[in-house]
From TrEMBL:
It catalyses: inosine + phosphate = alpha-D-ribose 1-phosphate + hypoxanthine; adenosine + phosphate = alpha-D-ribose 1-phosphate + adenine; adenosine + H2O + H(+) = inosine + NH4(+); S-methyl-5'-thioadenosine + phosphate = 5-(methylsulfanyl)-alpha-D-ribose 1-phosphate + adenine. Belongs to the purine nucleoside phosphorylase YfiH/LACC1 family. Pfam families: Cu-oxidase_4. Signal peptide: none annotated. The lineage of its organism: Bacteria, Pseudomonadati, Thermodesulfobacteriota, Desulfuromonadia, Geobacterales. Keywords: Hydrolase, Metal-binding, Transferase, Zinc. InterPro entries: Cu_polyphenol_OxRdtase, Cu_polyphenol_OxRdtase_sf, Cytotoxic_necrot_fac-like_cat. It comes from Geotalea uraniireducens. This is Purine nucleoside phosphorylase.
């Protein structure tokens, strides 16, 4: 992935998705917004103690940079589940959806930016350039264990007629296996639903494991039929990169949120 800048927005762009030529997308950094510490500067999350006018200002910077309006940015109330919001028709008030509980958004509507906010969790963007459908998924450990990437691919296939092998995926910055220590309840949740636990987790002793959430989601995409060559992961750990990214665990829970976003071109 390559770091880009449009206006005041610094973001990571997947060359794989950009090469399809049908959507704009990215994973934002913390740079160049209006929020003050500890949310400095481009905090895009509404579920913080950062004043709402700061968050709205930051979101306006993002949408203006990509030639759309704040009223066409769709986010949801993320609850670490696997419910998906599907937008398959134009809507006069996209801000309404921010109140709905879900952890993914899928749309075939051009000019509508869909996004998920993260501070350690994995942002996953999907693009079917043939059917012209996009998705933004929020994958924390609960959502990952419950198969949110699998459900996202299934929704593209079932609702929009996508072929898994034509879907492109970008897996954004998240807390890495180097910094993400988990215990037995997390392990059991994965072992109930996922094979290959040992491929993305390493036991460190005393009932603790280092979990690579991004790798777990890449594996899930592949098992859902997405070609490995069609998946690009950033490989960046947000906890190790305080100058560029927020991290909930590193910052003791009081921190901002970056966003994974994608929008079909008109």
């Amino acid at each position: 992935m390559e770091m880009k800048r449009i206006d005041k927005i610094h973001y990571l762009e997947s060359g794989l998705l950009a090469g399809a030529g049908v959507a704009v997308h990215g994973f934002t950094t913390r740079h160049e917004g209006v929020s003050r510490p500890p949310y400095n500067s481009l905090n895009l999350g509404t579920n913080t103690l950062d004043p709402s006018y700061n968050v709205e200002g930051n979101r306006s910077l993002l949408t203006r940079a990509f030639a759309t309006g704040l009223e066409r940015l769709v986010t949801v109330n993320q609850v670490h589940g696997t419910d998906l919001l599907v937008l398959d028709a134009a809507n006069p008030d996209y801000s309404y959806f921010q109140k709905l509980e879900a952890d993914g958004i899928i749309t075939n509507q051009p000019g509508v930016m869909v996004g998920v906010c993260v501070a350690d969790c994995v942002p996953v963007l999907l693009l079917d350039p043939v059917r012209r459908v996009v998705a933004a998924l929020h994958a924390g450990w609960k959502g990952t264990a419950a198969g949110i990437c699998r459900k996202g691919v299934e929704a593209l296939v079932g609702v929009f007629g996508s072929e898994p092998r034509q879907i492109l995926a970008a897996v954004g910055p998240a807390i890495g296996g180097c910094c993400y220590e988990v215990d037995a309840p997390v392990v059991e949740a994965f072992r109930r639903t996922e094979n290959g636990w040992g491929d993305f987790a390493r036991e460190t002793g005393a009932g603790k494991w280092q979990l690579d959430l991004a790798a777990a989601n890449v594996r899930q995409l592949v098992e859902s039929g997405v070609a490995e060559a069609n998946i690009e992961a950033s490989g960046l750990c947000v906890s190790c990169t305080p100058e560029s990214f927020f991290s909930y665990r590193r910052d003791g829970g009081e921190t901002g949120r970056q966003m994974g976003f994608i929008m079909l071109k008109p």
